[in-house]
Design a protein that fits this description.
Blueprint (H helix, E strand, L loop, with lengths): L4 E12 L2 E12 L3 E5 L6 H8 L7 E6 L2 E2 L5 H6 L2 E3 L12 H12 L4 H6 L5 H10 L15 H13 L5 E5 L7 H18 L2 E5 L3 H7 L2 E6 L2 E6 L1 H5 L2 H8 L6
Parallel strand pairs: 3-8, 3-9, 6-7, 7-8
Antiparallel strand pairs: 1-2, 1-4, 4-5, 9-10
The structure holds adenosine-5'-diphosphate (ADP) and magnesium ion.
């Protein structure tokens, strides 16, 4: 482990029934790094995120975040400690407005109660507007989530994850369902935020153009195992990786 190691995953495994979905995976992420995780559908990428963010309990192995053992720490505590995530499937309150959704994230991060949410509609309004501007949703604050375009929903989700001011953000297919023309801007937004806040990011992404243009490092998962972890150039010429992809497996 180096001084600038932010996340260290050691030999982590997870079984569902008799199936080992994450199989002795280990890697580290350094501060400021933008690391991508790729692999065919069902490779175990989302489960790996669930293990790191505390939603799923590992069967063996260890996870260290900021030098502390966080292997079995709850997601809400990890979030307060600086680790947030977005979900592959939208995780917003569809019946509420953009403003209410962002405010809820800010409030939960600040450990305020639901009562305060209803008692004071103006609570954290500056912060909510700041987060909305950060993801370019400032003109849609009073729209109901149901009225938002799908790409805008993904940006809202990003704002909600950023509201916790994470040091490490886990992004699970943030461009999934987002129209092609909006993908570049969404990723640029993430990159800009990383620079502005000295944030580190782990990205699961199926769009290889995006992966190879943004990632400092790429890890490849296949059937629960990490089969490669290297620079984009080295990944591109890695024989094992080529075998997985040329073998007809769908990239995800
Ligand atoms: N809660 C669960 N119970 C049982 N099987 C699961 C569960 N979550 C994921 N799996 C299985 O684990 C495998 C890996 O899934 P996942 O981590 O979602 O892969 P990926 O994100 O790479 O597509 C899949 O076969 C999936 O069906
Ligand atoms: Mg997934």
């Amino acid at each position: 482990m180096n001084d600038d190691t932010l996340l260290l995953v050691e030999n982590i495994s997870k079984r569902f029934g008799s199936r080992t979905v994450v199989d002795q995976v280990g890697f580290e992420v350094r501060r400021g790094e933008f690391m991508a995780i790729i692999g065919p559908n069902g490779a175990g990428k989302t489960t790996l995120f669930n293990l790191i963010s505390g939603g799923v309990r590992s069967d063996s192995g260890r996870i260290m975040f900021k030098g502390r053992d966080t292997t079995h720490v709850r997601p809400d505590l990890l979030c307060r400690g600086g680790l947030s995530r977005t979900f592959q499937i939208n995780n917003v309150f569809a019946g509420a407005s953009v403003r209410e959704n962002i405010r809820l994230s800010v409030i939960s991060f600040r450990r305020k109660s639901w009562d305060m949410l209803t008692a004071s509609k103006g609570l954290f309004s500056d912060e909510v507007e700041r987060m909305a501007s950060a993801v370019k949703l400032q003109d849609q604050l009073d729209k109901s989530v149901q009225e938002l375009a799908y790409g805008d929903r993904r940006r809202l989700e990003l704002a909600m994850a950023l509201a916790a001011e994470p040091e490490l953000i886990l992004l699970d297919e943030p461009t999934c369902g987002v129209p092609l023309v909006e993908r570049g801007p969404l990723i640029e937004l993430i990159q800009a935020t990383m620079q502005m806040r000295a944030m580190t990011a782990l990205l699961i992404e199926h769009d290889m153009d995006i992966v190879f243009s943004v990632a400092d490092r790429i890890a490849v998962m296949y059937r629960g195992r990490l089969i490669a972890d290297d620079t984009p150039d080295a990944i591109q010429s890695n024989a094992k990786v080529q075998e997985v992809y040329l073998g007809g497996a769908a990239v995800a």
